[in-house]
Write a structure and sequence with these properties.
The protein has 12 helices and 6 strands. The protein has helices spanning 4-7, 23-26, 75-78, 151-156, 211-230, 234-249, 258-281, 285-298, 303-315, 319-332, 337-364, 387-410; strands spanning 91-92, 99-105, 119-127, 133-143, 165-170, 191-201. Strands 1-2-5-6-3-4 form a 6-stranded antiparallel beta sheet. Strand 1 and strand 2 form a beta hairpin. Helix 7 (258-281) packs antiparallel against helix 8.
């Protein structure tokens, strides 16, 4: 299990989500085990949180969605006066008034616009409504359409012409949402983004990447997935983990050293574990089970994968299958209180399930309940006969009746 220091997520990424060059990112070190942890149960009472000392606050990241701001309908306010002109000049990108773009310096024509999947480089300046600058990047590079950046940038940069400078006013929903970005972006804060498109080129051929380059690229996507998980945006988290896994699983024309192979596998396991956690949040149980099984193919003793697989099976009512899996996880880490709690809960649910089934069978067979039967006669009751004998006798009797009907019909 990750230590408490390892469990802490890296700081929220800047618009690029890469951590390169952003002051906020530099202030908070990256960790090797981001979100590769066991999760706290949502139904745990606050007074029990001290008993779950191994766990980070993964279950506490969900917060209400940022409400639509009235002033988001008027982008000229957020621009702090810069470039604010006739409202007719603003392009309502999504038609909801929450994301608007205005050209400040024209580009080289519509045919020069970048395509999804290309690596683009932009100059970026991000400010709050009061004009406070929270981000400045002279040359920010990211893959367009991979959700590597704020949604406001991913949606609007593809509309820019090469060389164009534009002003983008985005509601918090398309920036840092209800959580904001500590310490400089408050919760529910809209941003004004001044963006210039500097370059666009095709993404590198994955087959030609060295081991180190492939690891770096996959980790960047994984870290972006961790950011979305923190924001409780599990759909985008799944998307980022899927992209990372596609990179890791791509064929290669380059020879990797044993150390690089081992590190590639380590990153793959982390992505699969995080993917399973996100899929569980979305109630995609079949997909989560597949992700857990893929981890266990590589690492049969991976505690997090065992724990999540047990949770998936439990969510599907498969208590009989879930209990031994959680027992295996507990055997590997006997002191883990979360596994103890989950296992105890499942054992109780399984016992309740068996009691309900037993009572149902009794009613189906027309037998009185055990509660109404004198204790001294209990051992002589007909349902003390093994079930397979009882069902066998029933089948024989039904077969005899059918045979008698056939003989009578022939006569």
């Amino acid at each position: 299990m990750a230590s408490s220091g390892e469990e802490a997520s890296s700081g929220s990424p800047g618009p690029a989500g890469t951590g390169a060059g952003a002051a906020a990112d530099a202030a908070q070190p990256d960790t090797a085990e981001d979100f590769e942890v066991l999760e706290e149960e949502e139904e745990e009472d606050e007074e029990d949180e001290d008993d779950l000392s191994e766990l980070p606050p993964l279950e506490d990241v969900g917060r209400p969605a940022a409400p639509a701001r009235e002033d988001a309908q008027h982008p000229e306010r957020g621009a702090g006066g810069a470039g604010a002109g006739d409202p007719q000049e603003w392009l309502d990108v999504l038609g909801n008034g929450l994301l608007k773009k205005k050209t400040l310096v024209p580009g080289r024509g519509a045919e020069s616009r970048p395509q999804k999947g290309q690596d683009v480089t932009i100059r970026l300046k991000a400010t709050l409504e009061d004009g406070t600058v929270v981000e400045e990047e002279p040359g920010l590079t990211f893959t367009l359409g991979d959700c590597d950046v704020l949604q406001a940038l991913d949606l609007c940069v593809q509309l820019l012409e090469m060389g164009e400078t534009a002003l983008i006013v985005a509601d918090a929903k398309y920036c840092y949402g209800a959580q904001g970005r500590s310490p400089d972006v408050p919760p529910n804060a809209p941003l004004t983004l001044e963006v210039e498109l500097l370059a666009a080129r095709d993404a590198p051929d994955l087959e030609l990447l060295s081991g180190t380059e492939k690891i770096r690229l996959a980790n960047r996507k994984r870290e972006r997935g961790n950011f979305f998980y923190q924001q409780a945006d599990y759909v985008l988290a799944v998307n980022s983990y899927d992209i990372a896994l596609r990179i890791l699983g791509s064929s290669s024309k380059v020879h990797f050293s044993p150390d690089e192979e081992a590190e590639l596998l380590d990153v793959k396991v982390k992505c699969l574990n995080n993917l399973a956690a996100s899929q569980l949040k979305l109630d995609h149980f079949k997909a989560a089970l597949k992700s857990c099984n893929q981890v266990l193919e590589h690492q049969p003793g991976n505690i997090k994968a065992l724990f999540r697989k047990g949770k998936v099976l439990a969510q599907q009512g498969e208590y009989r299958e879930a209990i031994p899996i959680l027992k295996a996880a507990l055997k590997l880490e006997p002191s883990n209180k979360t596994i103890h709690a989950e296992l105890s809960k499942l054992v109780k649910k399984h016992a309740d399930q068996r009691n309900v089934e037993t009572e149902m069978y009794r009613k189906m067979l027309g037998n009185p309940s055990a509660a109404s039967t004198p204790r001294k006669c209990k051992d002589k009751l007909p349902w003390s006969i093994p079930w397979k004998w009882l069902f066998g006798a029933t089948a024989i009797a039904l077969g005899g009746v059918a045979l008698s009907v056939v003989i009578a019909a022939r006569n």
